[in-house]
């Protein structure tokens, strides 16, 4: 940078902001060039007022000029005021006289720019100054500073959405208050009662804030349910932004509230009233705004009046017998719809009955012997109710209602009470009224015996066939009612004196040993006899299944068990075992085999079960056969052992083996295999046998691989006997 230095300082918003740019080949602290703006950020200015901003620059002999920049003017790019140095000191140039005033004192380094009227567009905008030191060459030094304007807007008006409010104590009302200012105002909601007491209800309000160049608009919504004590009071909102404070206009509160209590009714004269006399009913209720409105559901001569905060409504009329028990209702209504109470009064009018008494028997109809019978005598009408009496002996009780006299007599009955007549007599004390009513008793008798049950065809029943059971009981009035607990086709073959019920159904094995019961019922609760018949049902066992313990394969010499599993039939099953076609004399469900030998391998075991049912039906139940798998060590056979060989001849040694599993056979000499393994048989070929093989040992090994018992190995050894060929001297010649 050609030996020059450049410094830039940025301070936080709200604190003086300084930008200093110095370019010089040599800068010393004593002659540093700086610039400072006053007032510093934030520069508080009231809207529509003028404000002066001073750029305080370092006093230096090489001061050349100072320029002001206004951000509201084209973003602060062009200069709005220029102060420059001439021979007389400081001169001012290029300042708009309609918008700004300017002054300067270069000897103090003070350069002033006055904005004649600050409007809302200046909020959060800057005024910046730049001072030039030098002679107008590239090495000149510049110092800059700026301040940000905060335009304060006072509260001029508090707007409230209502001039008056009419509501009630059951509804929420929403009112809006709007204030524009800067800084933002806080809004409080106040209720002032008729005595001047103040209540702050701001807790139920919420606010929203919007911002534009003209100020910050705060909108507060109050949602509030007014109380009865708020009627006649005033509501207003109060705004305060620390600069100014104002209240809105007052809103008159017209709050409806209902009475605290329900209406009351007074009857004149009080108490019971004889028919053809007059009665006056007065309904009244106190309190509420406005007063409640009263109505009657009964007609008559009406009188309405109001005294203070109490309203009265009276009706008068002549009583007839039909008015007894009549409910007259006084209803109160109010502007507050939740207040809708009703109060009632029931009229008590004296008059005699107009009907005859009636008797009802409980239970109705014929009566069961040994039970209690209740006769209820009822006489409707009359006030007071009539007096009732009985001529029968028993327990008498009175259960009268508001509209009927009721007297009951309860007595135990037997067949001796059949045809007995009971009389109820009625009396009333307001007239020569006397009436009587009669009732005759009818008694029921049960049968004299318990039911009898028999099977139409006696003896055991084969599963899958049908059986008929017959139940009968004699006597009783009415006849007994019979029922079977075994489902089937029922046939009722009752006669005049005997109840008969037959049931026919097809049986299966589940019926064996089952009791089919015939139950008799009768209106007499103590007659509940039951007779049972036990069924004997023959049914087959299931086809047997064989289970082995342990599972195959088995080994030679083992003892094992085979289980013949079959679901039991009836009567008891017998068992028959076969090995191949040979019958084993064992009548058990479990067969013990062993000790096993190799001869048992590949033989078939089967089990047959039978009982009386299978014999009757010619059914044979035999299990699937099991093929025995008995494993044993291989058995080796070497043909022609020892092996006799004439010297010089060829020889063949055959080794055969059998076993389970199938063995592989191989020849060894001195523990070295001399043939490849073969199944069941291995052949060793000796060619041009030499006498040195005389007495040589050869071993045949057979090996089986068992999945359960591992490797089964057997071996057998043979030797060769070599005969020397005789050579005569003639042969030698």
UniProtKB/TrEMBL annotation:
Keyword Transferase recorded: no
State the compartments where it is located. Answer: Membrane
Matching entries from Pfam families are given as: C2-set_2, Ig_3
Cellular compartments per GO CC: membrane
Keywords, alphabetical: Disulfide bond, Glycoprotein, Immunoglobulin domain, Membrane
| Topology in membrane | Single-pass type I membrane protein
Q: Where is the Ig-like domain?
A: 154-252, 263-346, 357-442, 451-536, 544-622, 634-718
On the tree of life, the source organism's domain of life is: Eukaryota
Q: What is this protein called?
A: Ig-like domain-containing protein
The organism of origin for this protein: Mytilus galloprovincialis (Mediterranean mussel)
């Amino acid at each position: 940078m050609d030996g020059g230095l450049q410094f830039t300082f940025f301070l936080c918003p709200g604190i003086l902001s300084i930008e200093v740019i110095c370019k010089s080949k040599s800068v010393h602290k004593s002659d540093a060039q700086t610039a400072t703006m006053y007032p510093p950020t934030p520069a508080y200015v009231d809207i529509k007022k003028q404000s002066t901003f001073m750029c305080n620059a370092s006093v230096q002999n090489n001061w050349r000029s100072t320029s002001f920049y206004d951000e509201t003017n084209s973003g602060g790019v062009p200069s709005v005021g220029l102060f420059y140095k001439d021979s007389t000191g400081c001169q001012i140039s290029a300042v708009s006289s309609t918008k700004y005033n300017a002054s300067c004192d270069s000897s103090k380094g003070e350069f002033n720019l006055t904005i004649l009227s600050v409007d809302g567009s200046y909020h959060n905008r800057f005024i910046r100054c730049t001072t030039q030191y030098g002679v107008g060459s590239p090495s000149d030094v510049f110092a800059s500073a700026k301040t940000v304007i905060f335009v304060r807007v006072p509260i001029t008006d508090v707007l409230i959405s209502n001039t008056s409010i009419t509501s009630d104590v059951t509804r929420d009302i929403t009112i809006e208050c709007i204030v524009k200012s800067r800084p933002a105002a806080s809004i409080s909601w106040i209720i002032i009662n008729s005595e001047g007491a103040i209540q702050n209800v701001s807790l139920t309000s919420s606010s929203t804030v919007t911002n534009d160049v003209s100020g910050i608009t705060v909108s507060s919504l109050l949602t509030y349910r007014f109380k009865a004590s708020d009627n006649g009071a005033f509501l207003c909102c109060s705004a305060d932004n620390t600069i100014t404070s104002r209240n809105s206009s007052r809103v008159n509160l017209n709050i409806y509230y209902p009475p605290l209590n329900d209406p009351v009714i007074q009857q004149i004269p009080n108490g019971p009233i004889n028919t053809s006399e007059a009665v006056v009913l007065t309904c009244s209720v106190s309190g509420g705004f406005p007063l409640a409105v009263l109505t009657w559901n009964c007609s008559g001569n009406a009188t309405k009046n109001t005294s203070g905060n109490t309203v009265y409504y009276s009706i008068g009329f002549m009583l007839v017998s039909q008015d007894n028990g009549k409910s007259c209702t006084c209803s109160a209504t109010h502007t507050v719809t939740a207040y809708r109470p009703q109060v009632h009064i029931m009229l008590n009018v004296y008059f005699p009955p107009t009907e005859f008494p009636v008797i009802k028997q409980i239970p109705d109809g014929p009566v069961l012997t040994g039970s209690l019978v209740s006769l209820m005598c009822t006489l409707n009408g009359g006030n007071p109710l009539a007096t009732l009496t009985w001529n029968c002996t028993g327990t008498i009780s009175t259960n009268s209602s508001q509209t009927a006299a009721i007297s009951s007599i309860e007595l135990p009955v037997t067949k001796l009470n059949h045809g007995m007549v009971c009389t109820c007599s009625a009396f009333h004390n307001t007239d020569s009224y006397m009436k009587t009513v009669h009732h005759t008793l009818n008694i029921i008798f049960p049968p004299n015996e318990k039911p009898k049950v028999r099977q139409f065809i006696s003896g055991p029943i084969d599963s899958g066939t049908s059986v008929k059971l017959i139940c009968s009981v004699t006597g009783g009035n009415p006849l007994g009612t019979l029922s079977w607990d075994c489902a089937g086709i029922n046939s009722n073959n009752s006669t005049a004196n005997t109840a008969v019920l037959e049931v026919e159904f097809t049986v299966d094995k589940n019926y064996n040993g089952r009791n089919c019961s015939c139950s008799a019922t009768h209106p007499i609760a103590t007659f509940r006899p039951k007779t049972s018949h036990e069924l004997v049902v023959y049914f087959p066992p299931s086809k047997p299944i064989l289970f082995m313990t342990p599972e195959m394969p088995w080994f030679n010499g083992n003892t094992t068990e085979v289980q013949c599993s079959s679901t039991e039939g009836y009567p008891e099953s017998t068992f028959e075992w076969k090995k191949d076609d040979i019958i084993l004399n064992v009548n058990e469900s479990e067969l013990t085999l062993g000790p096993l030998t190799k001869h048992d391998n590949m033989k078939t075991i089967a089990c047959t079960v039978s009982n009386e049912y299978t014999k009757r039906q010619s059914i044979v139940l035999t299990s699937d056969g099991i093929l025995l798998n008995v494993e044993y060590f291989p058995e080796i056979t070497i043909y022609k052992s020892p092996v006799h060989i004439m010297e010089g001849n060829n020889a063949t040694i055959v080794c055969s083996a059998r076993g389970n599993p199938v063995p592989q056979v191989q020849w060894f000499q001195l523990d070295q295999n001399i043939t490849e393994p073969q199944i069941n048989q291995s052949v060793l070929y000796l060619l041009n046998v030499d006498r040195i093989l005389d007495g040589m040992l050869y071993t045949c090994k057979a090996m089986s691989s068992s999945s359960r018992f591992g490797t089964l190995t057997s071996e057998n050894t043979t030797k060769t006997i070599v005969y020397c060929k005789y050579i005569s001297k003639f042969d030698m010649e």
